[in-house]
Amino acid sequence: MKNIQRLTMVLAIVLWLVVIGIFAVAIAKNQLWSMGPIITYNRPRDALGWLIVAAIAASAVSAILKLTQDK
């Protein structure tokens, strides 16, 4: 169980780094406004929207596994 928690934590960190990298590249190229909207009609749009949703989900699963592992 500890390995799964570590795996999801690493996955969450990698996903967040990818999302931050995409934002950094967009800011550097002055294309930030062309990426929006990220979430429309309660659904993720494009790859960036799905990456953000996956990062949030991986972070939540990692936190839940950490909380249940301590008990």
From TrEMBL:
| Residues passing through the membrane, by range | 7-27, 47-65
From what superkingdom does this record's organism come? Bacteria
Q: Which UniProt keywords apply?
A: Membrane, Transmembrane, Transmembrane helix
The entry's protein name is: Integral membrane protein
Its lineage opens with:
Bacteria, Bacillati, Bacillota, Bacilli, Lactobacillales
